Amino acid sequence: MLSKSLLVLAVLFAASPLSAADPEQELRRLAFRQRAAQAKTWEDPYWHKLLYYEESLFGRVRSASLNPKFFLAKWGDINPRLELEAAIDGLYYEGADNDSPECLFPERYRWLKEKLSIPAGEFPARACSSFENWKAGLDVESVSLLFAAGYLNNPSTLYGHTFLRLHKRGGQGADLLDYTVNYAATAEEESGLFFAIKGLVGAYPGQFATIPYYLKIQEYHNLENRDLWEFPLNLTPDEIDRLLRHCWELGKASFPYLFFTRNCSWQLLPLLDIAKPELDVSRRFTFWVIPSDTAKAVLEASPPAAPGWRPSLWKTVEWKRSQLNQEEREAVLGLAKRNQAEELKKLESMHYERRAAVLEAAVDYLSWRFYARRIGKQELDDRTDPLLAARAPLGQVTTFTGGPARPPSITDAHESLRLGAGLVALKNGPAYELRARFAMQDLLDDPAGYLPDAALEMGSLRLRYEPRYNRYYFKEAKLARVLSLNPWDAWVQRQSWEINAGLEQAPETGRQSGRAAVWAMNAGSGLAVEWDGPVRQLWYAMLQADSAFGPALEANWRLGGGVKAGVLLEKDKFRGLAEARYIGYALGDSSPLWAGSLGASYKLAKDSSLRAEYAWRGEVKEAGIYFHRFLFAP
Amino acid sequence: MKKVLLTAVVLGAFGAAAFAADYGAAGCGLGSLAFKKNDMTQVLAATTNGTFGSQTFGMTFGTSGCNNEGLVKVGMARQSFIEANYKDLSRDVAKGNGEYVTNLAKLYGYTPENTWQFTQLLQKNHNAIFAPNDVQTAVNTIDKLVASI
Q1: Fewer CB atoms near the end CB (10 Å): N or C, chain B?
Q2: Minimum-distance CB partner of A158 among B29, B52, B130
Q3: Phi first, then psi: what are they for A254, rounded to 5°?
Q4: Beta bridge partners of A500
Q5: In the prediction, which pLDDT does A212 show?
Q6: Which of A55-59, A202-206, B36-40, B49-53 is predicted most confidently?
Q7: B44 is a domain residue
């Protein structure tokens, strides 16, 4: 592979400028160059889009692509003009058609020929068999945007993922056989902090790939247990052709993969902008990019269409379980966990239709247990094979009807950025507060479209002004908080957990308001129990480890552990949260922390809510009311 | 003693949270790559033989199941499908319906009208196809069954 592409490169460079075959042609070549020079064709925005040229603050132009194969000219990555002239010369390439610049970069040449009004008969048509075979293999009829919902129990998938699905012509009923266009960072096997840092600074190049849809389903639906949403993009045949031509070019590109800005989700946007220039979505993001936001941006710019939904593996298991009675559920657990041969014998007394249902549910449950790492491959095989062997002879039986209940999609979700303002009553008078949070939800925000029973907060700021001291200070400046409450389920048996890091005020130290900032980090795990009454209740309790650093503390730090417990209440637009924690400190400042809060929120509209909070921390108490507004990320 | 207990709680809680969070890193969220790969991604890699993950279109790789353009070779489509979806396929064949078996029917040239024949044929022979737990056996047996009608 390497040698071949090197050869192509060598040919391109050595023959550059590629000379024409005879003087007549040479004059034509120079004429095209002149035509381009007169019109300054290289300044055309589309040329800049196709080559990912970006302008720096100092006006220097540079392509985002790191891969030299993406350019024809030696300095093509920093000079749009040289690249365009090399493209003109490339028209006279004399090697094999498949290696010709025209076949390597079909969309660039489609545009260039149109822009320079090169007559169709000027050059004999290139036979790009490689590209044409690829295109024919995909045989795309339509394109949709796929969104894999976030999944909290895997930190790298907190925010979800987006990719494109290329629907094969006449592929109805054979969804799995389609391909996807996926952008991801490519990295060698490595781990640890070094790995994370390298990722953050873009040391791993991101590349596009066409991956069979069934593998993406394995990955998201099975392995990571996430819902997959599918939003049709309604591209016309011309737009699809443009998309494919440019995808082919992107096979030679690689970009620095940056988690917050140039991530998997953003890199799809320039591609969509090229396919459908009216979308113009790539410019909507400047500072950070959240996959659900990119999906929203694309959907806003597309005609409305009903999304498709593929429930996660667990949702499928849960739905099947809901159609089993108590005895049948016990049987499933028996087949999955106890002496299977005995349990299979017991099943014989069951009506064959119900037996089929139990067997199917048990197989799915075992599959979930495997993907959730509860059992290994050997146990999966040992336990599912006899079940399937017992199920097959029962023949065609209707076992389960309907399907899992569809949750609200991201199009129903509040925007990701939250701003707020509030009035706070302190013991010594009022304070005013401004809030900003970059992403995404806490327990009191409406979770529609996001994960339920979870908090995922990044960059949460609470700026206070206290007139009594004429003082501004951060009540809180949180870097990150992730909380995943998993209602206890006998089949899942998953713990709840939380991690937290950021600046906060520790008034329990006895300092004046605004003079007690500490850097606090904590983590906890525990259990949650759900009670689905007229008001849904989710009770939870956790063991928590807590640490803090700051001059407000004696010895400047403390480290300890304790308990935290609370209850979340939900009823239509109302949500309530009561929480208390007690932490004892073994090291550093050893005075214990006793703190808690009561909060209630009322959803006014999709993107606004009212909130009331009462909180205590040591002896210091406060109450406040706040207005929250959700906005699309800048 | 109190300090020891507290320290134990601290370590325990951190440990548990770390464990709960350490699920692995397939996929590409904001933070993809930041966490080490775990057994499950290796399972996925094993399932797919690593043949597709690194395939980039327009490049000339030459891995077993893939053509030069990064798509599954036409002649390998059935085998690749069966290999990558072995467990799901086995389940769908046993219950006699489901998308894995209908998609495979399409790869064997069945139409939506006669897919039921394929489905029933496989269901009746589930044991012969899947009991050996071997991809190649499954492929050969299905090929033979389809040819026998």
Answers
A1: N
A2: B29
A3: -140, 145
A4: A481, A522
A5: 83
A6: A55-59
A7: no
Residue A155 pLDDT: 52
On whether the CB atoms of residues A171 and A141 are closer than 8 A, the answer is yes
Radius of gyration for chain B, computed over Cα atoms and rounded to the nearest angstrom: 22
Summarised one tens digit per residue, pLDDT across range A609-618 is 999 999 999 9
Phi, psi of A631 (to 5 degrees): -130, 155
Instruction: Give phi and psi for A350, each to the nearest 5.
Output: -80, 150
The answer to whether residue B62 scores a pLDDT higher than 80 is no
3-class secondary structure, B118 = helix
The minimum CA-CA distance between A386 and chain B, rounded to whole Å, is: 9
- Report the Cα–Cα distance between both ends of chain B, in Å, rounded: 77
The predicted complex's ipTM stands at 0.84
CATH no. of A413-631? 2.40.160.40
In this complex, do B34 and A259 lie within 8 Å of one another by their Cβ atoms?
Answer: yes
Q: With a cut of 70, list the residues of chain A below it in pLDDT.
A: 1-20, 153-158, 186-203, 259-260
Task: Tell me the per-residue pLDDT of A391-423, one tens digit each, with 9 for 90 and over.
Answer: 999 999 999 999 999 999 888 899 999 999 999
Residue B107 covered by a domain: yes
Does residue B13 lie within any of the structural domains? no
CA distance A333 to A318: 13
Neighbours of A42 (CB within 10 A): 20
Which tops the pLDDT comparison, B50 or A116? Answer: A116
B59 or A246, higher pLDDT: A246
Nearest chain B residue to A163, by CA: B28
Name the closest residue on chain B to residue A590, using Cα atoms.
Answer: B3
From chain B, the residues in CB contact with A221 under 8 A are none
Residue B118, chain A, CB below 8 Å: the answer is no
Angle between helices A268-275 and A237-250 (to 10 degrees): 140
- Residue B40 domain flag: no
Tell me which DSSP letter residue A261 carries.
S
DSSP A223: I
Q: Is A291 on the interface with B (CB under 8 A)?
A: yes
Residue spans of alpha helices (H) in A40-147: 45-50, 80-90, 101-104, 106-115, 129-138
**Inter-chain Cβ pairs, chain A and chain B, closer than 8 A:** 302
Going by C-alpha positions, the residue among B71, B93, B67 that lies closest to residue B82 is B93
Q: pLDDT tier at B7 (50, 70, 90 boundaries)? A: very low
Query: Could you state, in order of their start, the residue ranges of all structural domains in chain A?
Result: 2-127, 139-310, 327-394, 413-631
For residue A364, give the amino acid letter. Answer: D
**Among positive and negative, which fits the CA dihedral A380, A329, A154, A151?**
positive
Which domain does B133 fall in, by range?
73-149
Is the CB of residue A203 less than 8 Å away from at least one CB of chain B? no
Q: Which of B14, B32, B93 sits opposite A156 (nearest CB)?
A: B32
Helices B86-95 and B77-84, packing angle to 10 deg:
90
Cα dihedral sign, A76-A78-A82-A87: positive
Would the CB atoms of B94 and A392 count as touching at under 8 Å? yes
HEC string of A431-496?
A: EEEEEEEEEEECCCCCCCCCCCCEEEEEEEEEEEEECCCCEEEEEEEEEEEEEECCECCCCCCCCE
pLDDT value of residue A506: 94
DSSP conformation class of B74:
G
Q: Per the CB < 8 Å rule, is B40 touching A395? A: no
b/e string for A360-396 if b means 16 or more Cβ within 10 A?
bbbbbbbbbbbbbebbeeeebeebbbebbbbbbebee
Instruction: Note the pLDDT of residue B83.
Output: 84
Task: Say how far apart CA B130 and CA A387 lie, in whole Å.
Answer: 12
What's the first-to-final CA gap in chain A, in angstroms?
42
* Counted domains in chain B: 1
Query: Within an 8 Å CB–CB cutoff, is residue A447 touching chain B?
Result: no
